Structure formats: structure tokens, C-alpha cells
Description:
Shape: elongated
Order of helices and strands: EHEEEHEEEEEEEEEEEH
CATH architecture of the largest domain: Beta Barrel
Mean pLDDT: 80
Largest sheet: 6 strands, antiparallel, barrel
Number of helices: 3
Low-confidence stretches: 1-10
Number of domains: 2
Distance between the termini: 36 Å
Oligomer: single chain
CATH class of the largest domain: Mainly Beta
Strand order of the largest sheet: 2-3-4-7-6-5
Number of strands: 15
Strand content: over 45%
Helix content: 10-25%
Radius of gyration: 23 Å
Amino acid sequence: MTINTVTPSFQYQGKLKGEAIRSEEQISRILRRLARAGNLLTLELPNKNRPFSTFVIASNANTHSLTLDQINSQRAHKEFLTLKHGLITCKLGGCSIEFTVRLVEFETLGGHGQYRVDLDSAIYSLQRRDSYRTSVFGDFSPNVCLQDERYGEFQGYLIDISMEGIGLRSERHQEWPFVRGEEISRCEILHPIVHVTTILEVRHYQRLSSLQCFKMGARFLNLTAEQKKVIREAVMSLQMKQLHT
């Protein structure tokens, strides 16, 4: 069954929060990431309190459309066909993604129903989880300096960061002496996006045999308000950069 249902978008007043992404290129990239990720999406219908789950079957980045799996509730399915609008929310990385869609058609293929929906003018992105660790790529020079009265100075690479801590990798063949629970009295991060000096507590530590180096996860201790501001801005900047690539 195919239904031509292109109609003006339903307005979700007060629902959409965060940064409005309107660039066609950026929207296309996000749609491709959603299709690859295979994450569950939440579909909310106008003036309905109960959300329903679906997932992306395919995306068309050129037309800004998605093919979604049919929701299980037959009542909600019929309401969607009638109302023709919905609010989609999902997680992508450490961000909450929200956007409104309009139903273009519903069809059954091989006994399985699916919707084709078009996006409205923008996707809204909002960082939700301070503890989500954002990966850091692209630096080929050591960008972290660890200093400790007991062990001296060590160089390393920042591999991920959150509001709670960081992941580090040592230089090749350099063994770090730290163990779980120890404090590192000085950690200076010199990444282009974040420059901050703080105290760390080692949370986990492992040898990466394939890379001939060591990996360590550590949490920040005694952050000042200014340090928190710098780290938050860096995390959000990295997340938005990755969302747009």
C-alpha cells in the first residue's frame, strides 16, 4: 500500500532543544550515520503521550528521507497514517538527536511494513551525558604530559575525553608505572581543542601488545569551575565536529 501524504509539518512547540543543524551537507552526514549505526529511534506522535520504537532501514541523503520499520502497535500505526507527522529522538554518540518528520508513504514489502518519511528543515543536537567519552583523533604528536614526584615525567596521547576523565595511550615501548587507584599529581593536556592542567586518579590500565604501548583510563580530581568550563567546551566541540563528519 502506498499513500501520498505530503502535508505541512506538525509543530512540536517546546519539544526541540539544542543546536539547530540546517546545513544540507551536515544533515546528509547525520542521516548516513543513523543508517549505519542501527540504533533504535523513538517516534512520538502529535498530542500522544506514549512513544514508540522503530529503526532506520535505509536513508537517502540526497532527499533527506528515511525508511523506517513499521511500529508494532497497530493502533499507533493507524494513527501515524492519519496524523502523518512525528517527532524522532535518538542517541548518536554522546548527543541527543531530535527532528520532526512527515510521512510520505507506507508500503508493505515481503509482508513487512515500512514508512518513508521526509525530514523537516533542521536536526537538533544536544549533549546529554557528561560521562560520555568522546574519541579524539588526528594528533600524531604527544599531547599529554604526566608528571609525578615518584616516577618523573611521561608523554602520551589523548584518545578520549569526558567531563569525568580521559583515556590515554603511552608512546611506543614506554611503560607507565602507574596502578589503579594512584593519583598523578600533574596532568597537562595540550590538545589543540583543550589546554588544561589537572590531577588524575588512575582507574584502569592495560598493555596493548599489538601497538607496543600502554592504555590508561583516569578520572579528573578536584576540578575548578574554570577547568570544568574548558573541558565541557572541548567535549562539546569534539562531539559536534564528529557529528558533522
